[in-house]
Amino acid sequence: MQNMNWNYPTNVWFGLNRSDQIQEACNSLNINNPLIVTDPGLLQTSIIDQINNGLTSKTNIFSDVKGNPTGSNVTNGVKVLLDGKHDGVIAVGGGSAMDVGKGIAFLAHQTKPLWEFEDIGDLWTKADSKSILPIIALPTTAGTGSEVGRAAVFLNEETSKKKIIFHPKMLPQIAILDPNLSVGLPKNVTAGSGMDALAHCIEAYSSPFYHPMAEGTALEGIRLVKENILEVYENGANVEARANMLVASMMGAAAFQKGLGAIHSITHPVNSLYDSHHGTTNGTVMPFVLDYNRSAIESKFERLGNFINIKGGLDGIINWTDSLKKEMDIPHSLSNMGVKLGDEEKLSQLAFEDPSTGGNPIEMSVDKFRDLIKICIIG
In the chain, at which end, N or C, are there fewer CB atoms within 10 A of the end residue's CB? Predict the structure, then answer.
């Protein structure tokens, strides 16, 4: 494995033991007093001590981060950052910790509340961009690709809706991809985060919008997932496969600027109302959504099947995603996650309103979502 630096557009430091260069990363961004943001589970591991010990002087750690992060996670973190007079953020963990870290760096010196910067139109222009603090991201999971994203997703606890907060400067200035940080990941998190990366790539590839660069990136991301996801699930110590999944995750996040779709539209309200794991939920609904979108994607998935060496076109790829669910103990249907028949009534409206809906290859409505979610519940 080669240690490499590249820009896409984040400055990416890739390779084994690159996390040891955390102080060098801080120096390059003139961060003198960083705040480490992580989650409670990761706080119990040696990874956070390793990062902290790599700094010239140890610093504060904020870990009040939920699996489905909330607006209050961000505002609580802002208080810790301001009290500690921190001048930058080191976000360590999966998508939840990275999103909260990005949110803290963004919101710390704004005068408006978080929800006024939802990813609608040009609301992001209301932010004071000069006050946004620099961010260094170290992913420990291979799923969200938040380390190369300009947005973050938070649950508004008052409305029980997930909202996307966007600003170009929420993009971390440096992402350190060190596969050693993901070696100890539990199998269920490896599976769920891997399916999240796959969902990003597949939905970006399926999106009807014209963006050939993102489409090519999505294709290669799908290939990397296919060749590595079961290996990291069965042999988590394989750092080569872990590295490939980290890259696939990053490629999915770069690609989904082309659009997401109904997989995420359904997953977001299910996460909000049932506190399910984001990537695992994506994996559960993925085959059902692909089949529902058949008329719009069938010919395109012939090309995809040829590229990743799966026969049978769309049916072959649906069968492959189903087999991944079985081999990695991903729940078969939403009913296995606590969603009951009849719940499609409330979920369908929320799914239709989700910002991912516009990228679905078939134009959706509340009625169509009701039918699709019912299929996802029954299985």
Answer: N
